[in-house]
Design brief:
The protein is an alpha+beta fold and 382 residues long. The chain has 2 domains: 209 residues, Sandwich (Jelly Rolls), CATH 2.60.120; 86 residues, Jelly Rolls (Sandwich), CATH 2.60.120. The chain is 22% helix and 29% strand. It is built from 10 helices and 19 strands. Strands 1, 12, 13, 14, 15, 16, 17, 18 and 19 form a 9-stranded antiparallel β-sheet that branches. The longest helix is centred in the first third of the chain and has 13 residues.
Length: 382
């Protein structure tokens, strides 16, 4: 079965008035549009055209072979300003943290609750805009020292914590309440720098972050992170423990289904410093940009190497037919042109940008025609 999915954009403050509207060919929105969820997550499940929430539909869909829960969540994400700095736990960390908070009797919707489920949340963001910027992972220590050196004497408290290949001391200091005055002084020295030279883009971003997030220690955390600029079609993988924050742009995001987020700044929400330091990877690591692998005519595969999901990009031109074999339940979203999917039983659905569908596992092969691009989330093979 090919099942059309619809949902409304979530109006988080960091969302864009124009990015999703431009994708869908409509006027700018009168409120921020941050994310459109195409999945069965109970916080905001997609709906069928008849209005049935997808989680309820899946619970009743045994005849199609569909799972009771999807292993992934697909989103269109439109950021006009930076999201919070955050990291996600591994599967074992999530299971232990969830069990501990359940035993402690902390309500799952409490602001101080960290583990709202027992799953991990690896993510892949595929850029749709010509430029998508993100902070991802901790920068090479030698490069960070060069940036801190430009701060002069004001950077000394941070420089003193940049030793070895473990940035946990620097992160702990940056987020410690009793270091607020020292941290603020370092941030002020960054704001005073001219955005020129090797770190011009980083300094310009940090100045913007400091302006929009006064007194937030996350600005100093951001100073330690890699600034990544993706071009359209490039994909950033964020495994467990990697600090990250999307900065601006439009993309398709696919993640394991989970709400487990440990924040590290740039947010008014609860920051569990001890919890974050317990799960974060404190080593300097380069961002992981996935290499696309050809998977047949018109199809490339983006594989993060996890069992939860991988992503197929399907490009079809007029008068061509692209065959897709998803090997399991799939969620497809159109991002360009207009494409028609025809399943094995002959049923067809057409999609335009911003529209999505769920294909149940009995649809083992599709013929895709038209002219455009699809991103398809399918179960991983790891």
């Amino acid at each position: 079965m090919l099942l059309p999915l619809v949902n409304e954009p979530r109006d988080y403050a960091w969302g864009s008035h124009t990015l999703l509207a431009r994708l869908e060919g409509r006027p700018p929105a009168d409120r921020p549009e941050a994310e459109v969820w195409f999945g069965d997550h109970p916080a905001c499940p997609a709906r069928t055209l008849e209005g049935t929430p997808l989680d309820a539909w899946l619970a009743d869909a045994g005849a199609t072979g569909a799972p009771a829960r999807l292993p992934f969540l697909v989103k269109l994400l439109a950021a006009a300003s930076p999201l919070s700095i955050q990291a996600h736990p591994s599967k074992s960390q999530a299971e232990a943290g969830f069990a501990d908070e359940e035993a402690a009797g902390i309500p799952r919707d409490a602001p101080e609750r960290t583990y709202r489920d027992d799953n991990h949340k690896p993510e892949v963001l595929v850029a749709l805009s010509e430029r998508f910027r993100a902070l991802a992972g901790l920068r090479d220590l030698a490069a960070t020292r060069r940036l801190v050196a430009a701060l002069g004497a004001q950077g000394a408290p941070l420089e003193a914590r940049l030793h070895g290949d473990d940035l946990a001391p620097a992160l702990a200091w940056a987020l410690a309440p009793d270091a607020a005055d020292e941290v603020a002084a370092v941030v002020a020295s960054v704001v005073a720098l001219e955005p020129i030279g090797e770190f011009a883009a980083e300094i310009a971003l940090l100045r913007d972050l400091a302006r929009d997030n006064p007194a937030d220690p996350g600005v100093l955390v951001a100073l330690l992170m890699n600034l990544v600029t993706l071009t359209a079609g490039e994909a950033l993988y964020l495994p467990a423990g990697v600090l990250h924050a999307y900065v601006e742009g439009l993309g398709v995001e696919v993640m394991a289904t989970s709400d487990n987020v440990l924040r590290g700044g740039l947010t008014p929400k609860h920051v569990d410093v001890a919890g974050l330091l317990a799960i974060v990877d404190p080593r300097p690591t380069p961002p992981v940009v996935l290499d696309p692998v050809a998977a047949g005519s018109g199809v490339v595969r983006l594989t993060p190497g996890i069992p939860d999901f991988e992503i197929l990009r399907v490009d079809v031109a007029e008068h061509a037919i692209v065959q897709v074999e998803p090997a399991g339940v799939a969620v497809a979203v159109c991002t360009a042109g207009e494409v028609t999917l025809t399943g094995g039983g002959g049923a067809s659905l057409s999609l335009v940008p911003g529209r999505a569908l769920l294909a149940t596992p009995d649809e083992v092969s599709w013929a895709v025609t038209g002219s455009g691009t699809l991103y398809v989330a399918v179960p991983g093979r790891a």
